[in-house]
Amino acid sequence: MRASLIQIRVDESESVAGRRLRAADLVRGEADAGLVVLPELWTTGAFAYDTFATEAEPLDGPTHEVMARAAKDAGVWLHAGSIPERDPDGTLYNTALVFAPSGELAASYRKIHRFGFDQGEAVLMGAGSEPVTLALPETTVGLATCYDLRFPELFRTLTDAGAETLVVSAGWPERRRAHWTLLAQARAVENQAYVLACGTAGTHAGVPQAGHSIVVDPWGEVLAEAGPDEEVLRVEFDPAKVPATREQFPALKDRVLGLEAPRR
What we know:
CATH class: Alpha Beta
InterPro entries: C-N_Hydrolase (IPR003010), C-N_Hydrolase_sf (IPR036526), UPF0012_CS (IPR001110)
Organism: Streptomyces seoulensis
CATH architecture: 4-Layer Sandwich
CATH topology: Nitrilase/N-carbamoyl-D-aminoacid amidohydrolase
Protein name: Carbon-nitrogen family hydrolase
Keywords: Hydrolase
Distance between the termini: 50 Å
Family: Belongs to the carbon-nitrogen hydrolase superfamily. NIT1/NIT2 family.
């Protein structure tokens, strides 16, 4: 299976509408891929907090329209990254969209772990509550977004729900790039799954982005890694390696669940 991770550059010099169209053209250029992935909040920038409310859109808004058409034109499964979604009740969410090759919306995921430590995204957006998996013809994917990567419980839940490929869209800052790589490998090893982690390039809201999108196999081996600038990271991977790894080294079977907290 071939995946293409589009590490798009996000900065204030380009309009949101213009970036949508440019991203759609990049997606159409990946017609040979089985799965195409875009980063988190690439329309606005993950740290451009003051634009979330003004650029928020409904689930079926302009990004949905442009990305659905691009997925259909390319004939690919498209994880279109995430958007600032405005729910009908007015709540904002950081919501990922996944389209089938037909252009139909196949899944959406509202980010569960919001970043900001009681400011920024953590107070501006609501929290999702439901982990999401989606069965593709070749593999079952589990969806996660950026800060989610720091919470292994979510990824274990996705694995228990059948996920074999964990897809992470992100707007990860350069100053914590070492954590990005380390955590992507850790999530792959502990779940014996592929991790496809796609970040942004550029600088937005004064925050340099890490780039370095990465694909990790179930043994923790890095199959491909991007540089710091805008690029499309293409990689071939074998979904059959996941069940083979889990059978060869059946660590998941040895989990001990329901442990009580230590006594004080």
